[in-house]
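During the reporting period the student researcher (J.K.) took over the structure-prediction task from the postdoctoral fellow and processed the backlog of single-chain submissions. One of the processed entries is reproduced below for the supervisory committee.
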Amino acid sequence: METGQPTMQRPTFWQRVGEARVAAEPFRLLAATPSLLRRRTGSPRTVIVLPGLGAADGSTAPMRRFLARVGHRPLPWTLGRHLKNPQETVPRFVPVAADAIALHGEPVALVGWSLGGIVARETARLMNEAQPGSVDLVVTFGTPVEGPRYTMAGRAYTPEELDEIDLVIAERRGEPIGCDIVAIHSRKDGVVGHLPVIDRHTPGVTNLEVASSHMGMGIDRDVWTAVADALG
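J.K. obtained the following structure tokens:
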């Protein structure tokens, strides 16, 4: 599906109102805690978890604690509050990923929330072109692979910026990311339209659906389960 087709749209009014369900996410997580805590991986991995637009490492701390308990080696992205331009952010994040690879002596997996998923994808694309296999998995949730035009954050961009981003996305589709990708979306997402989160272009991608709000994805039991399964 190409950018600009009429099925692509920002979240509806009722989807935006539905973001209030974020208040229920901790209770859903609490109910699932016994089964989540029984999980253990037989293949520990080094994982960097990237926050969404405007957020910092504190927003991914609950998921990182869960992944550590499962048996992985989760790391923060360490770049502070996430600003809106991936073309500036990716060059800053590549050394963070490279340092993790050097420190642990193994490929790294990247898990990105919303805009963090865009940075994860582009980092994998860049690093795997230079050194194949350096990033061996990308997991995204609530990530607008079709660009910010179909998100509530799209209003922060000028029409000219959105047009330029659309062109960049179209150009990069021909460049392989070079690793497995799991893309998680929700029809109840009130920040990013769920269709633009589904990756219809990357060969071999796995698209998964959950029932979370966008703002609650970082503490959603189904997102945690999907991420752990992808890493496991």
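The committee noted the following: The two ends are 31 Å apart (CA to CA).
J.K. will present the remaining backlog at the next meeting.
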